[in-house]
Structure formats: structure tokens, C-alpha cells
Amino acid sequence: MTVQIITIDGPSGSGKGTLAAKIAAHYQYHLLDSGALYRLLGLSLHKQDLIDSLDTQLESCVKIATNLDIKFVTNESGISVLLDGEDVSKIIRTERVGEFASKVAAIPALRTALLERQHAFAQSPGLVADGRDMATTIFPNAQAKIYLTASAQSRAERRVNQLQAMGVDVKISDILANIEARDKRDMERTVAPLKPAPDAYFIDSSNLTIDEVFTLMTNYIDQQLAN
Ligand code: DC
């Protein structure tokens, strides 16, 4: 039986994470949050004092990436993420770990080290893969490819609301500056830069609710899966 693959790529704050989880639940497919893998690797390398020496200590970093001990555990409160048995679900979502992830993501050998791990998520009946290069690099034969974006300002506003809901006090100007810097790094890196696949369905969610985006996505996916 073929495993159906739906990819959702786009910049941070576009609503990808929320939508990918909803779409996976709707079709009862598995979910790959590839950004979490980069965040986990960033955190692990930081803990081992390697995050500022990715270039000079590349061999050790690749080894760590290949052997990363991570688990995604589904429970009542959603999905918990474990690194070396420790629950790091909250810490990996911080801006600081996002910065580590972005540094890690710019190193080709580290991206390659995470490749097999991502392919392993493709299991029956299907997978929703959320990231930056899911359609362009990891799953180029996906049945449905979505590129979800939004203006930097609206992504910053959403991120502030998200962080405030988690009890974290932040300034929108700082978040906006972070988002713009990360977009630039993600889009300008030479390996697997953030960009829509030529055959992707493009959605700008700046002025759309989650429910509206969900409807656009499921209409498109149903069409693709019927082909
Ligand atoms: O989606 P996110 O914010 O959790 O991603 C964290 C970082 O990892 C971000 O800087 C982009 C990078 N990333 C990537 O390069 N490729 C992916 N498939 C997913 C994330």
C-alpha cells in the first residue's frame, strides 16, 4: 500500500505547526514536525558546548546528530518531546533554541544526518510533514504539497500571542527582528533553502483564520488524494 504524503512548508509563524497537527488528525496520518528535530539537535549541541563550534567540530556534531536520542510521545496534553529521556517540549519552543536550530539547519552535513530519521516517519496510512524543505528535498514525490506563508508582521503578532499564552513576556519589535533574521538565513542558505516547490499549492494566511486555512487545505488535499 502506498503511503500518502502531505507536505506543509513555510516560514515560522505561518500557522504550519497548528495546521499540520489538525490535518494529521483529520486524515489520521502520522505527523513529522521536522523543525522540532532541528531544535532538538540545536539544544543537544548547545548542552555539549558545541553550538558555537559547528564548523570546527563538525565530525563530533554529525555523530551526535546521527545518534540523537529523541522520542515523540502522544498524551492528553498533545505531543511531548523527549531528549535523552528528559521532557524538553517547552524549552525547544523558546527563541533561544530557535536560534540554535537555525544555525544547525544551515550546515549541510547536519541536514544530511537528519535525513534518514525524517524518511522513517513515512508510514502507512500516511504522513503530514511540516518544515521548510519537505516538498523540495525530503519528500519530492508527495501527493499534496502546500506552501503556507504570512506577512512578517502578522507572524510576529501570532508569535507574541503564543508566547504570552505560555507566560513569556516579549516585545513585538524583538520578535519581528528575530523572524526577519531567521527568514533571511533560512531563505538564503545554499542547502535546502526555504522556497515553495514549483508544484506547491500556495496559501497566504495573513488575513485568514485557522479554520479558513484548514478548509482551503483539505479541499486541495482531497483533490490531490483522489487523483
Ligand atoms: O519550524 P521551526 O521554527 O520549529 O524550525 C526551527 C528552525 O529549523 C528554523 O530556523 C528552520 C529550520 N528548519 C529547517 O531548516 N528545515 C526544516 N525542514 C525545518 C526547520
UniProtKB/TrEMBL annotation:
Belongs to the cytidylate kinase family. Type 1 subfamily. One of its GO terms (biological process) is nucleobase-containing small molecule interconversion. It comes from the Bacteria. One of its GO terms (cellular component) is cytosol. The gene is cmk. GO terms for molecular function: ATP binding; CMP kinase activity; dCMP kinase activity. Transmembrane segments: none annotated. The keyword Zinc does not apply. Its main location: cytoplasm. Residues 6-222 form the Cytidylate kinase domain. It is found in: Cytoplasm. SUPFAM superfamilies: P-loop containing nucleoside triphosphate hydrolases. ATP binds at G10, P11, S12, G13, S14, G15, K16, G17, T18. It comes from Acinetobacter gandensis. Its EC number is 2.7.4.25. InterPro entries: Cytidylate_kin, Cytidylate_kinase_dom, P-loop_NTPase. It catalyses: CMP + ATP = CDP + ADP; dCMP + ATP = dCDP + ADP. Keywords: ATP-binding, Cytoplasm, Kinase, Nucleotide-binding, Transferase. Pfam families: Cytidylate_kin (PF02224). This is Cytidylate kinase.
